[in-house]
Amino acid sequence: MFETKPDIARRAEIETLVNSFYDRIRTDEVLGFIFTEVAQTNWTEHLPKMYAFWETVLFRTGGFTGNPIATHAKLVPLTAMGRAQFDHWLMLFRSTVDDLFAGEKAEHIKNCAADMANVIYSRINQVPDPRFDPATLTPEQRERYARYQPSSP
Ligand code: HEM
């Protein structure tokens, strides 16, 4: 028998996903100490913030008002926040989603997480966002961007 997993339909599933993800993060060998020791995360505040964050991303109703770039930038002088850490974070996030859910929203939230990881990683480390690397432009984009003339001030 195939086991049919539900999709992420509302806030309740987001809470399940976030709780399960941070249960894994907390005890994770690579990332756990960044929360428990470096940031000394207050979980009763962080978890509801993350419910709001993902509800806002997925359903535009969570009312998240934080500043993820600034929050993660503060960690850079304190601990390694490189591609390896972000790739590991993404691997944990994707496997948590896949263990619990399947469907359109489940795919969407994994794509959003990957985009956010790229944006946060590049901004806090001042490296170009890999999505906008000229080497990865399509021929159509390359031609269109070559036509672009900045308007004079
Ligand atoms: C190397 C990977 C990452 C590490 C080590 C990390 C660690 C942290 C830490 C320590 C905090 C602060 C928690 C506290 O209040 O104590 C935080 C906040 C947060 N993280 Fe991450 N994070 C990572 C990647 C990501 C990614 C990829 C996303 C989005 C998809 C994300 C979304 C957030 C959000 C929304 C907050 C709350 C920001 C705010 O309050 O303004 N994180 N993270």
Secondary structure: elements and pairs:
Blueprint: H1 11-26, H2 32-38, H3 43-59, H4 68-73, H5 83-100, H6 104-125, H7 139-147
Helix pairs in contact: 1-3, 1-5, 5-6
Residues 31, 34-35, 39, 41, 46, 49, 53, 66-68, 71-72, 75, 81, 85-86, 89, 113, 116-117, 120 line the site of protoporphyrin IX containing FE.
Based on the coordinates given, report the CATH architecture: Orthogonal Bundle
CATH topology description: Globin-like
Low-pLDDT sequence parts? none
The description of the largest β-sheet is: none
Task: Note the total helix count.
Answer: 7
Ligand types: protoporphyrin IX containing FE
Report mean pLDDT, rounded to a whole number: 91
Shape: globular
CATH class: Mainly Alpha
The string of secondary-structure elements, in order, is: HHHHHHH
Name the CATH superfamily classification. Answer: Globins
Q: What class do helices, strands and sheet pairing give?
A: mainly alpha
Number of beta-strand segments: 0
Give the count of structural domains: 1
Radius of gyration: 18 Å
Q: What is the terminal separation in angstroms? A: 65 Å
Strand percentage lies at under 5%
- Percentage of residues in helical conformation: 55-70%
Walk me through this protein's architecture.
This protein has 153 residues and is mainly alpha-helical. It has a single domain, classed as Globins (Globin-like). 62% of the residues lie in helices and 0% in strands. It has 7 helices and no strands. It has helices at 11-26, 32-38, 43-59, 68-73, 83-100, 104-125, 139-147. The chain is globular and about 50 Å long. The chain starts with 10 loop residues before the first helix and ends in a 6-residue tail after the last helix. Bound molecules: protoporphyrin IX containing FE. Protoporphyrin IX containing FE is lined by residues 31, 34-35, 39, 41, 46, 49, 53, 66-68, 71-72, 75, 81, 85-86, 89, 113, 116-117, 120.
